[in-house]
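WARN retry 2 of 3 for item q-0093 after timeout on previous attempt; input resubmitted unchanged.
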Amino acid sequence: MRERWYSNRVESDVTVVRWGTFGKPVIVFPTAGGDAEEVERMWLVEACGEFLEAGRVKLYSCDSVAGAAMVRGTGSPRYRAALLDGFHDFIRNEMIPAIRLDCRSDDVTVITTGASIGAFNALAVLCRYPDVVSHAVGLSGTYEMSRFIGDGGGESLYHATPNHFLPNLDGPQLETLRTRIAILASGQGRWENIGESWHLAHILGSKGVPNRVDPWGAEYDHDWPSWRRMLPAYLAELT
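OK item q-0093 returned
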């Protein structure tokens, strides 16, 4: 399945792609400014082939609209932060309803995952919308967006970033989030910074949100070969 539609939430067309026919829906966010088919070009879909063939999962991905703007430095920090906030709104109120329609279920929950900035989006969507996300798996996560957005992101950056809003979160959203699970996986090789995973894990734990950090060792770099090993391992565990 490959669909494309215009979203007012991000003021652009967005492509959504699906692989598989049956199983648990899993949103795989691209890295940085990647498009919806990046995960296929980089052999991540093929790495998950046994789960697709067995009908255990259906993989979905979409264009990283906000990530592309951050990579290009488009607009002001306030604009980029608002686009990130709008991108998460697109996932909750457009992409997930489309997934539920595709799955013929009005209440199915999704797993979110992704690598690098994709991991940030996976964890942010879980924390913001635990009513529709059951698990998030961050692969080599980069969880602080301020350095990509710049100073002056304002309220939009606060609302879009778990590192910022989680310490003050309370009420029904937090109660639901405490029934979900966050997994923060990271290598310890080249270009990795597992400290970002430990920092987010500390914030999650302080709010009573089940989570764990999985260190994968120095032989795992911040790169696609690592993520092609990681994601199938977590699909085996969660589906």
